[in-house]
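Researcher: Go.
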Amino acid sequence: MKKIALLGSSGSIGRNCLKVIDNFPGEFQITCLAVHRSLQTVYQQAVRYMPQAVVITGTPTDKSLLTDLKNRGIRVYQGQQALTEFFAEDDSDLVINALVGAVGLFPTLEAIRRGKTVALANKETLVMAGEIITQRAQTAGVTIIPIDSEHSAIFQCLVGENPENIRRIILTASGGPFLERDVSSFNHITIDEALAHPRWDMGDKVSIDSATLMNKGLEIIEAHWLFHLPLEKIEVVIHPQSIIHSMVEFIDGSIKAQLSLPDMKIPIQYALTYPKRKTSSSQYLKIEDVQSLTFFEPDFEKFPNLRLAIESLKLGGTAPTVLNAANEVSVELFLNGKISFTDIPRLVEKALQQHEVVPHPDINQILTADRWSRNFVLHLQGG
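Model: Structure:
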């Protein structure tokens, strides 16, 4: 029985992960459920799955629920250091990092330090500290299995292949909800419009990133570190049908692609069962029903966040950290109704322009850049 520590169990990836696990009774055991402040959700999950531990990194609002979990024999960890404390006693085989944002960095580092296989859905870990994460994983002999549909697709296409034979990888993007919308009206985009993704069911932050195409920019940086490829070997195409989740072109002209319906349970199951494959409960793709698959280049003027992410990777060092932090704060400001949709890339670009890049940063320098970027954006907006 494979033991699973699920970090971010209340989010979209976390909930889908539990749905996949439900399909394989007796094959997986949940050792930990971790959330920031979704106490009611994690309480209900814990009562059902009876993990060894529950971790709440934020401040819980209902202490009685925590008391009830303890009475059920579940260890409860609270506070900013809760995950580190949990890992000291954890015996999981696989850590699924489905946390959203920069908070996912330290749990990934801790899991690697303890030799755990990591299934990674948290883009920000590699965006902020890709060089450090990949070096430490290699030193520790730790496998990082991507859960993002695009990186899972690339990962699957590369099984049995020599990385030296890669000519390029092609990340596909749906284009988000504003693919056909005239850019002149972007300043009037509402929160509800930005959250209404045409293909995927995601959390608020990831949905906004998809609407601005920042998600694809972060995925370029993530792919650079995951697959040890230079920027010139990583390309993005818009593919509105979201059937082909990414492709690999090899030096002989062959292209391998991974296709499925847009369902996150498929890459999640692959990560859970890797290196095996098991029968899925997800709906299967009927290729004969696919009438067309279209592809075209992204519009970098219409979606400047994609350009900014590429520029940050070229700058290297702490630039991607600043990009990520500025974007996180800007997205939160937008979701709180304090800035417009078009202010998001404007603030991210300002932060990148004003930042003094530190090459090959250590963790402390990464955290310093992260704090600087957040404070810069908040100060710029008068927040």
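Model: The longest helix spans residues 363-381.
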